[in-house]
Amino acid sequence: MSQPKKLFIKTYGCQMNVYDSERMAEAMGGQGYETVDSPDDADMILLNTCHIREKAAEKVYSELGRYKGLKAEKPDLKIGVAGCVAQAEGEEIMRRQPMVDLVVGPQSYHRLPELTARTHNGAKAIDTDFPEEDKFEHLKSRPKAKRGPTAFLTVQEGCDKFCAFCVVPYTRGAEVSRPAQRIMTEARDLVERGVREITLLGQNVNAYHGHDTGLAGLIRELSTIDGLERIRFTTSHPNDMDDALIAAHGECEKLMPYLHLPVQSGSDKILKRMNRSHTRDQYFALIERLRAARPDLHMSGDFIVGFPEETEEDFRDTLDLIEQVKYGSAFSFKYSERPGTPAAERPQVPEDEKDDRLQRLQALLKRQQQDLQDAMVGREVSVLFERAGRLPGQMVGKSEYLHAVHVTAPENQAIQPGDLLKVRIESSGPNSLSGVLIGR
Ligand code: SAH
Ligand code: SF4
Ligand code: F3S
User: Is the pTM of this model over 0.85?
Assistant: First the structure.
């Protein structure tokens, strides 16, 4: 048998890219490639890229620059660029970095094996179409390998919202949902391979319509799979949070009490200019309903500071919103001008102003997150263990609220990855909790 070729994939950006990279690795597995952890002795390097902010996009070019030496030493090394920069910049990538052999957009990954074959003898291959067919149904899997206890599963792709700052509708195309039956099959397969927690992914996952009762219907159906213990989903848009999905948070035991529901800003003026299509009061009302359904729900969010024409007063509205909601976790960013998006044409906030606001916002979020994490001390949580910790016998897992929890088990009760156990929290550190086992 011929030696397997070595594929190194580096993944940037969101969880959907993480999922896509796994599927590409599986597809290339069928072509005789095995994945490796370092680019140094790879036969093919694939960068799965992100275009969301300028810094993310520029990283690709600096990373490519680092491969110059490798390519000079090994001329038949293939270098490919996938993901959202591939979609947004296409051929431009090959102009800026002629050593790139292959450019493939996020909707064309099922064509990767064929594109790779086309790069024989120094030829270039590029595919940034939005084909009709579902890429995932055409991505072949290699023989079923055992895997860790948590997995991502993309159920929806693309975005029709066109927020004024965002490139995603251009890089990922229109909203499409995968049929529920295919998701069920994939989920059962993951569970057979050892997965106990599935996070359903979509750019607007709660706009999912591949099930006749939407995302809530899909979650309820997934709940019937024996051995699947936990379900999460991300990322949601406030406007797509329907009654059934709110109710599911109270009724569906396997659905975890943690919700990522980005609002971006707490100012009605800015929300309007962002084209988010809801007000701050509507967001508050939504959270109230969610917490009525599930009182211990931990909220998470995304925030942008320094959006064009954001004043100090607008920014304070955002701080105020955060004070009221109390987030268990959050991601925050300085507004980054993206070519081709409407907000890039508007009067910009000076960089030092953005820096200052980001610092203040993050200080508040950090305090809040720490308070909520500290409040777990003394409580009983369930922990899905994932990996060994630094200390002998120590294991690390996640609580239902997504807090990292460290537990050192007594010698006769060693914990295995995939164990779902009851833990009493005893202390709270800067980034994680520690506790003791109280039951199996
Ligand atoms: N679909 C999700 C977000 C996807 S992008 C939603 O609507 O919530 C992830 C996050 O990146 C966004 O929530 C936003 O906070 C941030 N983001 C997107 N475009 C940005 C830009 N131009 N500058 C700074 N942050 C941006
Ligand atoms: Fe981007 Fe808005 Fe779509 Fe989210 S909803 S992906 S922020 S355009
Ligand atoms: Fe980035 Fe594309 Fe995800 S721009 S955040 S990789 S959808």
Answer: yes
